[in-house]
Structures are given as C-alpha cells and as structure tokens.
UniProtKB/TrEMBL annotation:
Its main location: mitochondrion. Residues 1-47 form the Carnitine O-palmitoyltransferase N-terminal domain. The keyword Ribonucleoprotein does not apply. Residues 174-739 form the Choline/carnitine acyltransferase domain. This is Carnitine O-palmitoyltransferase 1, muscle isoform. It comes from Amphiprion ocellaris (Clown anemonefish). The keyword Transferase applies.
C-alpha cells in the first residue's frame, strides 16, 4: 500500500517503483521570502542596537576619532601620552607586521578605546544631568537660571535623532528614600483620617518599627538597588488588575466588523515592527527633553501571564507570527505573515470574515474555556498542570499563550451612541470583563471587535501600566483612520487574496472533570463581574483650558473635586490612591499619591460652611502638586513601604507597623490616563477623533474606582466603578457628585477679582509656616 506524506513545501508519494516528488513553487517562494525578511529584520535590529548602544555618540564619531589619531601620527604628535607606542610594542604577532602596520593598528586600537571611554563619559554625564529634578518643583511658566542651564546641557548631551531605547543606559536609578522621610510622609498622610487616639497609636507603631527592624530591612533594599536596575522591580506580577481602552468616541470609520478588525490588526503589526526594531521615538517630557523609560514597551506583544501555585510569571516571547481569534465559543489560529510580509488589511479582513461565516459548533468545554483566566489563580494553575500539559490541549494552549495577542470577535454591538444614551456604561463593562469567558485575560491585551465596527482593548496590568498601551492605541487609531482608510463600501483597501489558507480551529479534549472546573471558574468570575457597578460619562461643561485659568494644574483640580464629591457622597474622608509614574528612572513604573491631605480636608470643609474657599483650594492644590512631584521623583511612600514589607516576609520577621499600613483599604482609587502622547492627530483640527480612554474595577468592596482622561481643552471623561453589593456606593450618584463638585470649584473663580486674589494667595504662607504657594 502506498503512503502519502505532505509537508509544507513539497509532496511525495512512496510507490513500489520509487518515490514521486512534487515541489510547490509557491510555498518554496514563500519560504525564501520569509528567510530574506528574517535576515533583513535581524540586520535592522543589529543596526539599531548599535545606534542605541553607542548613544549619545554615533558610529560615525568612531571614524572621526580614528582619523584624528591617524593624523597625529603624520604630524608627529602623540596625544596618547605614549600609550600608542606601548600598544605597538605589545601587539601579538608583531614580528610579522611592518612598523607602519603596527603603528596604524595601535592607533586604531587606542582610538577605539578612547571612543568607548568618551561614550561612557557622555552617558554618565547625561545620567547625572537627568538626576536633577528641581525643575519639576518650579512654578508653571517660570524657570530658574539653574534650570535653564540644566536644560541646555541636557539638550547638548542628548545627541540627535534618538531611537526608542537610546536613553535607557543614561536613565538614573530609582533612589531608595530614607526610612525617616517615608514614615514622616506616611504619618502626615493619615493625620486627617485618624482621630487623636488612632494617630498616637500609629505613631507608636512607627517608632517601634524604626527602632527595631527598619534599619535591617532598609539595608537589603539599598543592596538590591546596587545590583538591580530598580529596587521595586519584580513586585508587579503580584498584582491582578485589568483595565481597558475604548474606541473613538464620535467616529466609526467603517461598520464592517471584519474590515475594521483587519485595519486595526495591520496597524498593530506595523507598530510591533517598529517596536521590535526600536524605531519609535522615545517619550520625552519637560519641553521635549527628559526621556521616559521604555522598558515596559518591550513586553507589549507576545506576552502572557502564566499562573503559578505560589506566584505568577510573565512570559515574553519573540517574533510570534500568529494570533488567536475567539468567536462564538471557538478558537481559531490565524497566520499574520505570508511570503515574508505582514498580511495586508484586505487579507486580514478576508480571514476574519471567514471566521465570522464559520458555523461550526464549539467542542465540549471550549465555549467557556477562557473563564479559567478570569477566576482564582490557584485552581487555574493546577488545572493547567493537570489537563493542559500534554497532547492536543497543550498544543492549543501553547498557540494561545505564544500568540502575538488575542482577538475577540464579539456578536453584540457596543459603543458610545449619544442619540440613544449619554453614558458609556454598557460599553465600558463589555471592555472590562465581557461575558467572563470571551477574553483571554492572561494575554498582555485582548483586542475586542464589535459587529457595528467599534473596537476596544482589555489590558492585563502586571506587565505594564495604562499609558504604555495608550501609546500603542493612539498610533493604531491614527494609522487606521488617516493612513490605511477604507473603500466607499467600508472594506479595507487593496485586492482580495482568496488564496490564503483558511484559519484553523484549535483542538481540545477537555474531560468532564475539567469542564466542571471551567464552569466553577466562570460562575465565580460572573458573580464578581455582575457585582461591578460601572458608570462612564463625558464632562463637557469645561475642560483643561478653563481649569488653567484657575492658576492650578488640571490634575490637582480634578483630585480636589474628587475629594469634595467623596465627602458629599459618603460624609467622611477616606484613604485615596492616585497613580503617578516614575518612568524618569530606569525600569520605573508607578508610585502612589495620597490625595486626601490635611489641606484637601480643610478645603472640602470650607466649601460646605466657610467663606475663604478659594484660598483653601489654592493651598490644597499646591500641596497636591507637591505630593505628585515627590512621587514622580522617587520620594513617594507606598512603594518603599511595600518593598520593606516584602523583605520582612522573606526574612520571616513580623512588623505590626507594616501590616497595619498595608491592610488599610483604598476606598477611593483614582488614575489619570494621558492622551496625545504621540501628537499624531491635531484634535483642534479633528475634534471628533478622540477616545474616551478606559477604566478599572473598584479596589475596596465599599469604595470607588475612578479613571479620568483629559481630552484637549474642553472635554474630560470619567469612568467610575463600585459594587452593587455595597449599600453605601452608587456609581451614577458619585458621577453626579463629581460633576457638581467640578462646577462648584470652577464657580469660585468667576469673580472679577480672581487674579488679584490668586496673586495675594501666593504670598500667604501655609499653616505650618514651612512654605508658600
């Protein structure tokens, strides 16, 4: 009997009289083109790696130094102070070289050494300059002479045309604050939240901690800061939080689901190609001068959180060429490359439409399989080991976990429709948790496509922070709308290629016991999701433009409005979390700003029953801005205390003070997601091309989670979450309280004498007499 075997590029049949071999010319061509593309990619990565590695110098500067050394030989000047002669006398195989050859080779070696020394000198000079943070504490619009000099030096030493990772080696390390400073700031932050007896007890615990184990724990952190790039690194895989990003608010480029997904996926592949090559421009702050760390961006694609019994790990792979698509309970494997290139948008549309047209049924246990990633981590880790470590289940799970990202083709339309409703509630909940089984929550992100053409992203939070995905999402939206575009019928531009191999179904053999675990995980996740009370709305009464006329930062304005809304909603003040970035440092991520300060409390009370509201607002806003700046520059509170706690756990010592600190609930958790990081779209010219951002769930069972996005000069979006099970919270009610608080604060600045009052406030000392506004 003859046996037929088919491989990728050829087919052969074994016959009694020999072997019949047939080559597929098209497949062989694709293999050849793929190889050429791979080598081209490696060459570009090598080139950009060299450019980033020698930055702020350039490879051409090596030639300049070599020419200078060679010229010195001919004019009989020795700038090396005899080192060239020493190298010449100690060269190996010097007996086989002429005198001139040895002289030239020695000059080149010395020039190379000098060039490398100058690179390190420039790099450490730039690192020293970037360690200067006084500029951030200066008043907006004012710049001291020392800051002007510093700014000029940074520009001088920063080189030209930096790539994404050019500044990485020049970024300073995150400093370890002193224990005394951290505890002092902590006690100051809880003073308005505790009565005298509670505060005295906390002071006693803090004193005992400083006198007993604080010094020992601090030594370990300082030691880690010497050998690690960031003393806080490694703790973020302990987090289990997810957030979302929504689509354009007012514009839907096409209502064809497959076409929109095709353009967006292609734009993501373009972004990934530039990311892998390091070709994106670095994110810069402070007049486009101070670079932000780009480390988090490395793990945007090809990344999955792997569950563990003790702790999870973040698995990042390279050069993944497929994605996995979920539609109506089925998982599909889709290749992203053909002939050594990305699939074109029209080709991706074809593939996604084929999946949408597929009428096959889910396999047993397949429909809700992804619910395992939404539930408790330990059962998922054990189930993964028991049922997904061999056979077809392992192959299919590996396909998901190694995919570039995960795409969910939903079958229910979502989006913001002002004609029907002015809220984002349903859309936001769909992005945040969906049906609890139609997102692979362990992937770095899940791209979500709706049948009405809307899109969105669900993001796993341990590998990176919200601005990182926001950076990619801005690029994708601009590329989709302004570069790729659609035909008049709403299809992707380009010819339709029907010769592509069809997407393939992932195969599963899931026994009844495993199906029961999946169902239990789904029910657990659904109970949590159903309890999320989410309200998203647009605040368009005014925006950043009018807030700036109040002589304060928009963030401080909104944070004080949140404090006022919280007090009106609950009747009490609470521990408040605001996320601040520390990306001015190597491998920096976030720090906490404790927004409920004594000054904020005084302002809120003044708003209810006092006449000096405006001055109290200005004092509170100045205090908040100072706290935010301290957090950004490495002088925060919570990451330091958390790391001390982690060290105490490793050493097996118990600290009542650290336990008490870390057990305090964040009843108000807030975060601002930055917009226009890339400035690819002028929203003054295209005001409709804006996104509402995204949100996250509440941290405390009886608290609120608030995400806000400042869009342009006249719009702010709020995403508010709480739990239905809490009788004390209501997201819609809190949203109305925020709206009223914003309007009430802005009303303080409507009098004709505002400017005079503000200027006088700048000369009034704060109550503690230590500083002025």
């Amino acid at each position: 009997m003859a046996e037929a075997h088919q491989a990728v590029g050829f087919q052969f049949t074994v016959r009694p009289d020999g072997v019949d071999l047939k080559l597929s010319q098209e497949v062989i061509k694709n293999i050849y083109l793929s190889g050429v593309t791979a080598w081209k990619k490696r060459a570009i990565q090598f080139k950009n790696g060299v450019l980033a590695g020698v930055y702020p110098a350039s490879p051409s500067s090596w030639l300049i130094v070599v020419i200078a050394m060679m010229s010195s030989l001919y004019i009989h000047v020795d700038p090396s102070l005899g080192m060239i002669n020493a190298i010449k006398d100690n060269l190996p195989c010097r007996d086989y070289m002429s005198v001139q050859t040895r002289a030239v080779l020695s000059a080149i070696l010395f020039a190379t050494g000098l060039w490398l020394f100058l690179i390190y000198l420039l790099r450490y000079t730039l690192k020293a300059l970037l360690s200067y943070h006084e500029w951030i504490f200066e008043s907006h619009g004012k710049m001291s002479s020392s800051t002007k000099v510093w700014l000029s030096l940074v520009k001088m030493f920063s080189g030209r045309r930096p790539l994404l990772y050019s500044f990485q080696a020049s970024l300073p390390r995150l400093p370890v604050p002193s224990v005394d400073d951290t505890i002092h700031r902590y006690l100051e932050s809880v003073r308005p939240l505790l009565d005298s007896q509670q505060y005295n007890q906390m002071e006693v615990l803090a004193s005992e901690f400083k006198a007993s184990m604080a010094t020992q724990l601090q030594r370990y952190l300082i030691l880690k800061s010497w050998w690690a790039t960031n003393y806080v690194s490694g703790v973020y895989t302990m987090m289990q939080q997810r957030n979302s990003n929504s689509d354009l608010l007012y514009v839907t480029p096409t209502h064809r689901q497959a076409a929109r997904a095709g353009n967006v996926v292609h734009a993501m592949l373009q972004y990934r190609r530039k990311l892998e090559r390091g070709e994106h421009a670095p994110v810069l702050r402070a007049l486009g001068t101070v670079p932000m760390c780009s480390t988090q961006m490395e793990r945007m694609f090809n990344t999955t959180r792997i569950p563990g019994i003790e702790t999870d790990i973040v698995q990042h792979l390279t050069d993944r060429k497929h994605l996995v698509v979920y539609h109506r309970g089925r998982f599909f494997h889709v290749w992203l490359y053909t002939g050594g290139r990305h699939l074109l948008p029209s080709e991706l549309e074809t593939q996604f439409q084929r999946i949408l047209n597929d009428t096959s049924e889910p396999q047993p246990g397949e429909l809700k399989l992804a619910a395992l990633t939404a539930g408790n981590r330990v059962p998922w880790a054990r189930t993964r080991i028991k049922y997904f470590s061999q056979g077809v289940n392992k192959v299919s799970l590996d396909a998901i976990e190694s995919a570039a990202f995960f795409l969910a083709l939903d079958d229910e339309p979502q989006g913001y429709e002002p004609a029907k409703t002015n809220s984002l509630d349903s859309y936001a909940k769909s992005l945040l948790h969906g049906k609890c089984y139609d997102r692979w929550f362990d992937k770095s992100f899940t791209l979500i496509s709706y049948p009405n053409g809307k899109m969105g992203v669900n993001v796993e939070h341990s590998w990176a922070d919200a601005p990182i995905v926001g950076h990619m999402w801005e690029y994708v939206a601009a590329t989709d709308c302004f570069h790729l575009g659609y035909t008049e019928e709403g299809h992707c531009k380009g010819d339709v290629n029907k010769g592509l191999p069809y997407p393939t179904r992932l195969q599963w053999q899931i026994p009844k016991e495993c199906q029961d675990v999946i169902e239990a995980s789904y029910l657990s996740a659904k109970q949590i999701a159903d309890d999320v009370d989410f309200h998203g709305y647009l605040f368009n009464e005014f925006g950043k433009g009018l807030i700036k006329k109040c002589r304060t930062s928009p963030d401080a304005f909104i944070q004080l409005a949140l404090q006022l809304a919280q007090f009106r909603d609950q009747g009490v003040f609470c521990l408040t979390y605001e996320s601040s970035m520390t990306r001015m440092f190597r491998d920096g991520r976030t720090e906490t700003v404790r927004s409920c300060t004594s000054e904020a409390v005084e302002f809120v009370r003044a708003m209810e029953d006092a006449s000096h509201k405006k001055l109290d607002f200005l004092f509170a806003a100045d205090k908040h801005q100072n706290m935010y700046r301290l957090a950004m520059t490495g002088s925060g509170i919570d990451r330091h205390l958390f790391c001390l706690y982690i060290v105490s756990k490793y050493l097996g010592v118990d600290s009542p003070f650290l336990k008490k600190v870390l057990s305090e609930p964040w009843k108000l958790s807030t975060s601002q997601t930055p917009q226009q990081q890339l400035n690819l779209v002028d929203i003054n010219k295209f005001p409709k091309y804006v996104s509402a951002g995204g949100g996250f769930g509440p941290v405390a069972d009886d608290g609120y989670g608030v995400s806000y996005i400042i869009i342009g000069e006249n719009l702010i979006t709020f995403h508010i979450s709480s739990k239905f099970s809490s009788p004390d919270t209501d997201s819609y009610r809190f949203g109305q309280n925020i709206r009223k608080a914003m309007i009430d604060i802005q009303a303080l600045f409507k009098t004709e004498n505002d400017k005079k009052i503000v200027e006088n406030a700048k000369r009034v000392p704060l109550e503690n007499g230590k500083k002025y506004i």
